[in-house]
Structure formats: structure tokens, C-alpha cells
Amino acid sequence: MFHAPATQMRKMLTALALLSLAQPVLAHPGHPGHTDTISMLTDGLLHPLAGPDHLLAMLAVGVWSALVYPSIKRAVYVPLSFSIILLVGALMGMAGLHIPLVEPLIMASLLVLGLMLAGMTRLPLPVGAVLVAFFAFFHGAAHGLELPQGGTAIVFILGFMVSTLLIHCTGMVAGAILTRRHVWPARLAGAGIASYGAILMLTGH
């Protein structure tokens, strides 16, 4: 459970989570002043929400880190490591570098992260951070291959990084709430994510 000094941080995370739910409001083109830059930012914000594999992985990381580490000061390192290496992978993918096994490892990440959540697997913090960062690299590479070219690419990157952090915050808020109640919903969600990953691996898509 997060300790008392983290109360204000939990309030901030809750506010961020609520803000993330409001993102689809930005997705309505055609309003006055709707420029290419705004459109690219909107596309970036919505991009991580479009693929269930990316969305579920990031939610699993947020919930798992909040449940297995004793304070937010420790738990936050895991989603931060995911986000930073996600960006590295995205930039490498955008640069056109050949990165093998991107899709298989994204599928494997759902299986592994789902099992970690379902089993409430406790890992040393450096090990947990490195493990999720490893998978984040391939999620980022997949994003990078889909990034637009040109000067507005940085706006798109900004959008999907903000969205990524908000998704992590949403997962951490859920995990923080569950630490004070029952954890069975998180275990059930983890089993569902792992099952989805296994199905993707078996079917190849």
C-alpha cells in the first residue's frame, strides 16, 4: 500500500486519470482553428488507445507496479522506464532501423505482463524496471514504424508520450485503489491480458 506521504500524489494521479478519459473530446475535427498541428497532436494522443495490445500492456504495467511495490516513489520507476524506452524504440523505428521480432515480442509482453499481474509477481525493482523496459522497446518500435514523416512528427510523438503517461497513471490509480481493497479484480484482469497475449501468439495476429 502506498504510504501516507503519497496522498497528494495519489490525488494528482487520479486527476490525470480523469483527464485521460477526456482525451476523445479532442478527436473531433472540423472546428474553427483546427490546424494540421492540432490534428497531429490529436492523432498522437489517440494512437496508444487504438491498439488493444499497447493499451493493455501499459495498463498492466501501471496496475502491477502500484500493487507490488510499497510506495509510489518506488512504483513510479517501472512505468517511467517503460515510457523512456518506448520513446527510444519509437525514434529508432522512425529512423527506419530494422528491428526484428517486433510483433512476436509485443504479443509475448501481453502474456508475461498479464501473468505477472495475475500472480502478483514480486521482483526486485531494478529487475522489474528492466523487464518492462525490454518489452517497451518493441512497443515503441511498432509505434515508430507508424509515425508520420516531416516536421509535425515531433508533435505526434509528444501526443502519444502524453497519452502513454496518462494510461500508466490510470493503471497506477487503479492499483492504488486496489491495495486498500481486494486485489482479485487485478488478478482477473491479468489473467485476461495473459490469455489475450497467448491467443495472439497462437494465431499469429
Number of domains: 1
How many whole angstroms does the radius of gyration measure?
17 Å
Largest sheet geometry: none
What is the number of beta strands? 0
Q: Structural class, judged by helices and strands?
A: mainly alpha
Low-confidence runs of at least 5 consecutive residues: 1-6, 12-35
Strand-and-helix sequence, N→C? HHHHHHHHH
The dominant shape is globular
**Termini, distance in Å?**
37 Å
Beta-strand content bin: under 5%
* Tally of helical segments: 9
Give the mean pLDDT: 82
Helical amount: over 70%
Transmembrane segments: 51-69, 76-95, 101-118, 125-142, 154-178
Signal peptide: 1-27
Protein name: Urease accessory protein UreJ
Pfam family, one: HupE_UreJ
Describe, in plain words, how this protein is organized in 3D.
The chain has 205 residues and is mostly helical. It has one domain (35-203). Helices cover 76% and strands 0% of the residues. It is built from nine helices and no strands. The radius of gyration is 17 Å and the shape is globular. The termini are far apart. The model is unreliable at 1-6 and 12-35 (pLDDT under 50).
What does the secondary structure layout of this molecule look like, with pairings?
Blueprint lengths: L6 H15 L14 H15 L1 H17 L3 H4 L1 H18 L7 H17 L6 H22 L6 H27 L4 H20 L2
Helix pairs in contact: 1-8, 2-8, 3-6, 3-8, 3-9, 5-7, 5-8, 6-7, 6-9
